[in-house]
Amino acid sequence: MSSICRVFVLRMGHRPVRDHRVTAHVGLVARAFGADGIYLEEHVEESIIRTLRKVTEVWGGNFEVNTVYNPIGFIKSWKKLGGIVVHLTMYGINIAERPSLLTELRERCGSILVVVGGEKMPREVFDLADYNVAIGNQPHSEVAALAVFLDRFFEGRELVREFKGAKLKVIPSERGKIVKRVTENEA
Amino acid sequence: MSSICRVFVLRMGHRPVRDHRVTAHVGLVARAFGADGIYLEEHVEESIIRTLRKVTEVWGGNFEVNTVYNPIGFIKSWKKLGGIVVHLTMYGINIAERPSLLTELRERCGSILVVVGGEKMPREVFDLADYNVAIGNQPHSEVAALAVFLDRFFEGRELVREFKGAKLKVIPSERGKIVKRVTENEA
């Protein structure tokens, strides 16, 4: 994989209140599974943005949280700047049926924008996307689709990476809940 | 993998209203990623159960949706009957650091209960579980944890499996949204 490969997530179709937790989960998954940042729609609840920034402050890493006013316009600019757009949708090409897709993506790389949404994505997203990718062709969840896509894209390496500057760190354990406070020297 | 390997999901810690969408996503993911059924707590909204049954009716498969009154008691019975309990938690053994865990699970197999919850899982679950497994040790989402666990457990085969008796089927496409109505002869 090219060392300059950066992955961002664009979360569309957020419905205030109803999608509060799901959008927060999309953001947490983006961070935990190795994305560099997330773009949320401007109308998302402030509390989601606060949660994501707080988690990054406590658990480390350089995860960026931003909002966009016009997601379609944003996708167009991304492409104009030479970025690649991957739209995760149950109607797309099944990732399990075309593994070459990931190899191709890793080779092209540069800046990848992974677009996820709910049921009603505008037609334009399907047209603008360089790849419409299905994590299986069954209805399920944008949270799950994003996690599995990133897990396969990064080949599992994202789950063992260090999050720089973390104040808290989990010590994996068979049966306990062990959280270590990281001192400044270690961070 | 033993052919009699059955996987069920137990979703704990559901908070009405607030977790409505997340619990629905946990259920949809369980089905789409190859679990045989889900156990929900008795106090979940009726509409979640209806949605999951409706999806199974339309998109196929034999996914079972049940509720339990006492999740801890249920876990104890599961173990008494010889079933294996896997608890997904960010505090557990990182699946990416111990891949042998999946091999071991596949060999033991039989009936696996995958327990997922929110932030505040009772201590007892950690003690009762045969395996406390982390999908990475960062905070993220029970929806994502379940999806990645099942994707790795079934080695991706779950994403191409047939859902018997489906009335609708997606025809994967580069750019479209193609859904085929399945006639009774084909189903």
TrEMBL record, chains A, B:
Signal peptide region: none
Location in or out of the cell: Cytoplasm
NCBIfam families: PRK03958.1
Lineage: Archaea, Thermoproteota, Thermoprotei, Thermofilales, Thermofilaceae
Annotated function: Specifically catalyzes the AdoMet-dependent 2'-O-ribose methylation of cytidine at position 56 in tRNAs.
Subunit structure: Homodimer.
GO cellular component entries: cytoplasm
SUPFAM superfamilies per UniProt: alpha/beta knot
Swiss-Prot/TrEMBL catalytic activity: cytidine(56) in tRNA + S-adenosyl-L-methionine = 2'-O-methylcytidine(56) in tRNA + S-adenosyl-L-homocysteine + H(+)
Protein name: tRNA (cytidine(56)-2'-O)-methyltransferase
Family affiliation: Belongs to the aTrm56 family.
Keywords linked to the UniProt accession: Cytoplasm, Methyltransferase, S-adenosyl-L-methionine, Transferase, tRNA processing
Residues at which S-adenosyl-L-methionine binds: L88, I135, G136, N137, Q138, P139, H140, S141, E142
GO terms, biological process: tRNA nucleoside ribose methylation
Gene3D superfamilies from the UniProt entry: 3.40.1280.10
Single GO MF annotation: tRNA (cytidine(56)-2'-O)-methyltransferase activity
